[in-house]
Amino acid sequence: MSAEWSEAFTATFIVIAAFLCGAAGIGLLRFPDVLSRLHAATKPQILGLGLIVVDVAVSNISLATIAFAIAILFFQGLTAPISAHMVGRAAYRGDHLRRDLLVTDELADAVSRADERSSRRSDRRDDDRLGGGDDGAHETD
Amino acid sequence: MQIALVVAGVMFGIGALAAVYRIVTGPSLLDRVIASDVLVVTIMCVIGAEMAVNHHTDTLPVMLVLGMFGIIGSVSIARFMAKQDST
Questions:
Q1: What family does this belong to (chain B) (predicted)?
Q2: Which of A29, A55, A81, A112 is the most exposed, fewest CB within 10 Å of its CB?
């Protein structure tokens, strides 16, 4: 009985994780721009992988396996948001998004203000140095 | 169990093939980065599913290393692109 239950548990979790991976693939194919594809792609990175790792840890329980499972989950949960944030930031800065699909754009004000401030600062610095053209002043982000 | 495994294999295959298609014909570099992340995660899920079905833990370090590898690659590419585009 216990073996049957464990097998049913394993099968259920694997099917859910596979469904998440397949949904991410379909979302990658059908969504229109980088930000919406990012939304589709980050689902299996945490949820699907968490299901699989819990599945491995349950199917053969030992201290080493559970430690590995916690390490994988912790690492993935720490770094997947970082990578998604970096990709989304690069997409916004590099204009790889369709602005007509955005409902609201709260970042545009901040970006235009920062650009204005950095251009003013670089102008002042150029005046101080009597027009010494250095590119380092534009490197503020 | 067998039916569940076949269904799971088909779904994993759809995800991986869609990711490969998006890597080949992505309009921008960031689409390719996202798709390669999805491909790495799909491979990790398949490795883990194989471990859970066959009741062994030999490839857990492979999962850990794959996760680290995918994250470092996508972060470095995104950072490099941001610097290139802001000039």
A1: Belongs to the CPA3 antiporters (TC 2.A.63) subunit F family.
A2: A112
Residue to mutate among A36, A49, A83, with most B CBs inside 10 A, is: A83
The answer to whether residues A50 and B38 touch, using CB atoms and an 8 Å cutoff, is no
Mark whether A22 and A50 lie in a shared domain: yes
Residue A38: its chain B contacts at CB < 8 A? Answer: 34
Closest chain B residue by Cα to residue A71: B64
Residues A97 and A110 grouped into a single domain: no
Count of positions (residues) in chain A: 141
- Are residues A24 and A93 both part of a single domain? yes
Phi-psi group of B19: left, alpha or beta (phi > 0 → left; psi -120 to 50 → alpha; rest → beta):
alpha
What's the ipTM? 0.86
- Is the same domain home to A98 and A135? no
Rg (CA), chain B: 16
Which domain does A28 fall in, by range?
A: 2-103
H or E element, residue A139:
none
Residues in B touching A77 (Cβ below 8 Å): none
Q: What is the pLDDT of residues B11-22, one digit of tens each?
A: 999 999 999 999
pTM: 0.81
